[in-house]
Structure formats: structure tokens, C-alpha cells
Amino acid sequence: MAVFTPLSDEQVADFLERYTVGRLQTLKGVPHGTENSTFFVTTDQGEWVLTLFEQGEFEDLPFFVDLLDYLAAQQLPVPGPVHDRDGVALQRLAGRPALLFPRMPGSHPSAPNLTQCAALGDALGRMHQVSQRFTGQRTNPRDLDWLTRRHREVLPYLSDDDQALMRREIADYADAFGGVELPAGAIHGDLFRDNTLYEGDRLGGIIDFYNGCTGELLFDLAIVINDWASDDAGDIDEARYAAILGAYLAHRPLNEQERELWPTMLRMTALRYWLSRLLVIHVDPPAYDITPHDPARFRTLLGRRLEAVPPNSPTPSPEPVLPDGPTTPTTVPMATFD
Ligand SMILES: Nc1ncnc2c1ncn2[C@@H]1O[C@H](COP(=O)(O)OP(=O)(O)O)[C@@H](O)[C@H]1O
Ligand SMILES: N[C@@H](CCOP(=O)(O)O)C(=O)O
Asked: pTM of the predicted model, to two decimals?
């Protein structure tokens, strides 16, 4: 269920008059999605996505518009919001803030192959290269301060061992990251597989920037590795790991501090989702009927990251090393496993 505010054809046809995107042909509510009402809109000039914002920090919407405008202008595969005849992107419709986007092609990869992984690493590396110059500001809503503040609310729902683990981990992160300034810029903040669209091996688009913010670039990269390059047991899938990192590092090598903090950042971003998913279940359940994501997945990942430190301190290799296997080789260098 992801249409919380239904719209009629007439409402949308009138709304489209504000833009130069053609006349409405079809309107369809999108059944996925968890937070906003999303519609696929077809006109005689193309395909679009209309989003009505149902919850969240509405005052942050101008930040998301500016960030997407900026990244789209830098040729990143993101849906730049459509601006109306007066140059305005952020609108109101049915009493909700509304944005219109181009519809990006493709579907979410559940088991990405190595070429798809490399395409993601490449896009993220390019994004982080340019996002350091983005001038907008939004504090990371899921940073260490947030972890520190909110983890206490879920402790009563955890076993003694898990309580101790969560407390110990957060104390470790505070020690490790205290006083450290890592390279920062605009980040996606939630770049899971289901926030990407692929046509075959081609990355058609990165969507759902509503966790977007300004923060440590390494945080974004670690979220990606945990979701994209973990196997069913939660262990690192080394081939995917190498494909993503190799492509990423070709655009943005990590500095020494980032390499040192990499294993800790992988743990911290695993805990970030363990906690956010626990909060959804125990503390802030959604008002509507939706199947919550499983917190145990990220508890497992955290355990695996503690037991098996990832295979390398990521540095770009001087020579391209191509992934083995049946996928089409990419031309990007892989990470070394020193
Ligand atoms: N620009 C886009 N192009 C193509 N599909 C999109 C686009 N934006 C959203 N979608 C589709 O709509 C679904 C819900 O959008 P999303 O922004 O993730 O909503 P929510 O914030 O409610 O989770 C996505 O999973 C995707 O299938
Ligand atoms: N992709 C996340 C959901 C978004 O995180 P949140 O902190 O904004 O709830 C997940 O898989 O849990």
C-alpha cells in the first residue's frame, strides 16, 4: 500500500497544466513505497512520477530539490525534479507538498551481478566526487548523535547480551569517531538495492533521496557495502565487495583515516539499521498497515562484521582487475585486498 492520498484523473490533468510535460493519458498508483503517495503518470510527451509527501520533515523538501537538481545537472543518474512554467519545482496538490519527476527506467536488482555492482560503485564514486562541492546543508538524521540518543529506547526490548553489545558498540564509535573529520559532502543516506533501478546491467536511476543529507561520505559507502555485498549469512560477498569498491575508488580514493575507520563504519551503519528497524517495530510503529523490515538482518550483519573484519583496507589497484564469472567485464579497476 503506497497511495495514502488518492488522486482523480481530473486533479492530475489540471495539475499538469502547470508544467510543459504534455497532457495526461494515464494515472496509476504505485503499490510499493512506504512513506509517500507515489503515482506513475503517462502523458503524450513521456512518463513521470508524481509524489505527494505524507510525512517527514517538509521543511527539508527544498534541500532535496536542490540536491537532485545539482546531481542531475552533473549528469548523475538521478531524477531531477521537473520545474513548472515559472521555474518552481515544489508544488502543492490535494493539500500535500508535491513533486513531479521523470520516470527512470528499470527495476530493482535483488541479486546484483558484478557489472551491476560496478555500475553502482562508479555512480556513487562520481556522486561523492561532485557532492563535496554541493553547498546545501542538512544534518545527517541517522548519525552517531542519533544512535546515541535513540538506542536507549530499544534496550528494554533486547536480550541482556544484545543490550550490552549495543551499548559497547556505541561507546566504541564515540571513541573512534570523536574529534575526527572525515571527507564530507551530500550523501544519499539509504542507498539500498531497492533505491536503484537497472535495465539489464545499466544503472537507470538512483531514487528516494529522502534520507539525503550532508555528512561523511564513508557512511554512504558503508551502507552500500552492507546491503549490496553481504551474503545470506551476513558475510561479505568478496566479489561484489571488490566490484563496488574498485569502481568507487577509481573516482574517490579513501584517505588514511577513512581506511583505518572503515571496519568501524561498516559496524556503525549496520547498527544504524538494526536500531531504526527496532524503533519502527517497538517505538514508532507506522499508522498504516505495512510489513516492517527485519531488524535481525542487521543484528546478524553487525555480528559478522565484528567476527570477520572485511578483507582489505580499501585502496585502488594500479591495474584494472576484472571480475571473474559469466558477467560482462567492466573496465573499472577493482580494489586490492592488501
Ligand atoms: N523517478 C522514479 N522513476 C521510476 N520509478 C520510481 C521513481 N520514483 C519512485 N519510483 C517507484 O516508486 C516506488 C516508491 O517510491 P519511493 O520514493 O521509494 O517511495 P517511499 O518513499 O514511499 O518508499 C519505488 O520503489 C519505485 O518503484
Ligand atoms: N532502507 C531502510 C528504511 C529507511 O530507513 P529509515 O531510518 O529512514 O527508517 C531499511 O531497509 O530499513
From this structure: 0.93
